[in-house]
Structures are given as C-alpha cells and as structure tokens.
Amino acid sequence: MSAETLEFQAETKRLLDLVINSIYTNKEIFLRELISNASDAIDKLHFESLTNHDILEGNEDFEIFIVPDSDTKTITISDNGIGMTRDEVIANIGTIAQSGTRAFLDKMSDAGDSNNEELIGQFGVGFYSAFIVAQKVELTTRKAGGENSAVKWTCEGAGEYVIEDVDKPSRGTTIILHLKPEFVSGDEFNFTDHFTIESLVKKYSDYIRYPIKMNFYTEDKDKNHIVEVRTVNSMQPLWTRNKSDISEDEYEEFFRHQFHEWEKPMEIFHTKAEGTIEYTALLCIPKRAASNLFFADYEPGLQLYSRHVFVMDKCKDFLPDYFRFVKGLVDSPDLPLNVSREILQQSRDVKKIGRALEKNILKQLAKALKNDREHYEEFWAQFGKSLKIGVYNNTYDSKVKEDLQDLLLFVTSKDLKLSTLAEYVERMPATQKKIYCATGKDAASIAKLPQLEILRERGIEVIYLVDPVDEFALNALVSYNGKEIQSVNREDFELEDEDSQKTKSEIDELSRSYEELLLDVKAAIGESVNEVRLTARLKSGAVCLMTGINGPSLNMEQTFAPMNNPFFKAHRILGLNPNHPLFKKLSGVHAQDKNSDKFKDFCKLLYAQALLIEGIMPDNPVDLANKIAELMSN
After folding, report:
1. pLDDT tens, 173-183?
2. What is the number of other CB atoms lying within 10 angstroms of the CB of residue 126?
3. Where are any strands of DSSP class E within 32-99?
4. What is the pTM of this model?
5. Rounded to an integer, what distance in angstroms lies between the CA atom of residue 374 and that of residue 30?
C-alpha cells in the first residue's frame, strides 16, 4: 500500500499543542516516556509468548537501544517488543489518549492475571512528549510473529500524519526524533550527546527491567575507532530485593549514589506493603541535618517511582513537615498520577501510604529512645528541633501532639541532662501537681534566675528551655499526662503548698499598702513595662520580670524581634521582692520625694537589672552604666 496522509482524530491539533506546551513542564521527560513505552511493548510480547512461544521468532533477548546522532541531529529509540500492525498504529498513535497499553491491561484483567500489570503507559499521551523536542517524528514498527511487512508513521506535529508500508526484518518499534535546533546545540539541552542521554536514563529509567543499551565510541592507541555497546541502566532496583539479601554496605552505597549521603545513614526504613494498596518504600534518616534544613530554600519530599520508573523528585505528599529531614523514595503501581505522570493527585491511597510511613518512623524512633538512648540523643541533636516545630505547628491537632510528645527531650535541672516528659513526671514528688519550666539563653543563665530559688528550696525539678522553639512546643502541649505545664516566667506561676499560699496572701495584703508606690514606679519606668507588682516568688533576689498569662513571652518576643512586629510584644510585669533591702531603700526614697530624679533613676535601674537577669540588653546601656557609676560614687 502506498503512502497515505491521514488526519488526527478528536481535535488532535489542539490536544497535541496542549501535550507539547502545557502538560509536560520538564523538557527531558520525553526520554522517560518513550523508554517506558518500549518497556511496555516488551512486557506485552513476554505475556503473549507465555501461550505462543513462536511469537518470539527465535529471539528471547529483550532490549531497548538508544542512538543519539549529532551528524543527523536525531535520537533513535528502538525496542524488540511486540510492535504494531497498521490498524493498531492508526488506532493507538493516530488518536491521542487512545492507549494500546490501556486496552492491553483490560485484556489481562479479563484473563485474571493481575500480577503483570506493571505497565505505565496508561494515559495515551506519553508518545506525544516526543514533539516537545522533535520537529518531526518517524515511527517504524512490525508486529511480532508476522512477516517482514511493517508500517512507517511520520508526523511533524501538525494535524495530520503520513502512514506507509515498509519492510522491517525484525520485530518491534523504532522511533526517530528529528530534534529542534535548540535541543541539539543549545546551552541547556543537547540530546545528541551520549553522556547527557546516559545521565537521563540513569535519572529516570535506571530501574526499567530490560537492558537499555547505547553505543560508545573510543579510539585505541592506533587511532582506530572502537564501538563499545554498554548497558546504561541497572535494571533491578535495590528496594525490590528482600531486606535479608541486602547488606549494610549496599544500603549505604545506595543512599550515597541516590541521595548524596556521604555518611552512613542514622536509620534505614525498608518497607513493602501488599493488599488494597501496594507500595515499597526505602527511606533513611541522614547522619547529619542539612545546613539549610530549616530555611525556606530547603525542599523536603521523597522521590516517587511508579513501577520502577522515576516520576518526581520532591513529593511532599507522603510525610508531614516535621519529618522533612527524611530522605528516600516510594515506588507504587497504584498511585493516581495526572496525565503527564509528573504530578501526584490527592487520594486516600496517598494518605494511607503517608500515614503508614509516618507510623513506621515514629515506631522506630520510640524504639531507639527506649533501647539505645545514646543513639537517640545523637538523632535528637541533629533533628530534635524539627519534632518540636511539628508540635508547635500542629497546636490544634491532638493526634500529632500525641504522636510526638513522648519523643521530645529537654535539659532539666537534674544533672543538666536530657529528659523526656515521661521521665520528668516519674520523678515528680507526690505533692507536685505541675510540670515547671523556665526559659533562658542557656542552662547556666536559667539556673541563676532568682525565681528558681524557691523551687530549688523545695527540691522541685525544672525543665530548662534553652532553644527558642522549646517554649513554643511546650505551650502547644499545654499539659502532659494530666499535668499542667507551668512556666516560672509567667505571672500565674505559684506553688500550691500551704506555706506558699500563706505567703501569697501576705503579699496581696502588702500590695494594697504599697499601691501608690507601685503606680509611681510604673510611671517612672514608663511604657517599657505594663505593670509593677510585689511578688512572693523571690527569695534573695530583689527583682524579676514576668509576662502575662496570654500572649507572647519575653523569649518569644526576642525570637521575633527581627520581624519588628508591633503586635508580638510581651506583656511585661516587673516583680519586686518586698523583703529585700533594695525595696526598703526604694520605699524610703519614694517617701522623701517621689518626683525626684533619684527615685526615677532607682526605678529604671531596678528595671534594667530585671532585663539583664533575663539576658536582655537595656535600650541604653551607656546611660545605665553612668547611673550605676553615679550611685556608687554617692
């Protein structure tokens, strides 16, 4: 039959434009799609040969061959799969989104064979990704088991194609892409370069089950050209093997090659699930946190494969953000991809896989915490902040807080060692009703806070919040195991024993007597403080700063200070110890002349002292130093 020009069906010109310009955002994807189609064609032939061995025509060596050619400005992808007849070419290539693979899957389903459905060309548009890079595409194909008669399909990406009968001695399909100029010698892409094509095969199709071969040209010492045929894909993904057959060195090498982890991973998770949804996951917790782990430019996510074919690099849909440090991949034949296989669509299956992976990681971390504390503390030093941020970011999600709260570690006043909340509660005396915590820049500074004296006197352990995110995490928890979490830096801090309650009553009564003094101290200091009170929480200390029950703490205010947010200001309360000699001195100066500069300076110095105790630099340190010198000289 002579050459025949046919038009595409179903408004194909518009659809073809959509495929070329909109569906595929990554230009190099075309190679993945064509290799996947070739793999599908071989799968089909293998399936047919189970009942008709003669269809193999005496050749059982399956392969895919790629030939980039800079002279002709082409790239050729060929396979020795099942091939197509003329009618099949018209039906499957001449109609966009009419996939032969989809029909083949239906056939297999009717045959009751569900174990061979690892074919990825289900959407019917993958072939047309060739036109992203090609100005003309030639396809020559011969059906396996037939005569030498084959068919050639030629198209320049317009609304029509040419189809003609030709001779082809071997079965299978050969596709020649006549590349657009920008994909031959462009600065970004050169798809006639052998090493470029090899790297793309390794990136997208390294685990296709059939050998992908290429010719590589070298010269011997006599300048003779030598053609070396190499298989450029590894074919068997490590994650498809049984865990018992994989050595630690193989795992280590895999993560080094795949994710550039040059140190042995801290933890490895290799899971395989079958049933309503099938997937394999190979994940790791790296030895060290990335330097930009908590910066906006860090891209978390797992690699996604579908039937061993790479789909996307940073899929964020599987793991919650507090596991952003986890690296690895998920390979599943069941996930719903969009038409270009580049985007994962939301579905219950995605959530099921994600939750299963999350539970597995949580379980492994809990096991390490229980059985290998030193190892877990190494993990915590690298990634603990991420879990604490997870608690804070999920303040209203009780499930997340329940999952993470027992994995949190904090330094405490007991030996300055890391402790879980459960361990802290277990050590609490029977009379202690709350979990006490204090905030500061480091453990040494917190230990010197004057309001901790009363707790030390009673032998009460205190959690030291030395990382800015510590306080955010505990505030989000609110309580643990029925015990309210109480900050000693907040205004509502008080001990519940009889002596403390009696002292508080005395202070309340005394405050009424000094109401005018307290108001004048507030006036002298100005807008820097919101209130001035007498407090029962101090023993030897003269002064302290407290913050309101609601709103940000001093620590939070300092954390967000660079943002200069006027709404993120702490409600500052200056607490005075009425039993300290300085208070008596203050009271005397006030009685002499409450409008004097001496009284005002005294008040400002007390406030500056409270700031320094909290590790906050006063607004005018030079003025402070001069006032101290002046008072010392009098």
Report:
1. 999 999 999 89
2. 26
3. 64-69, 74-79
4. 0.76
5. 49
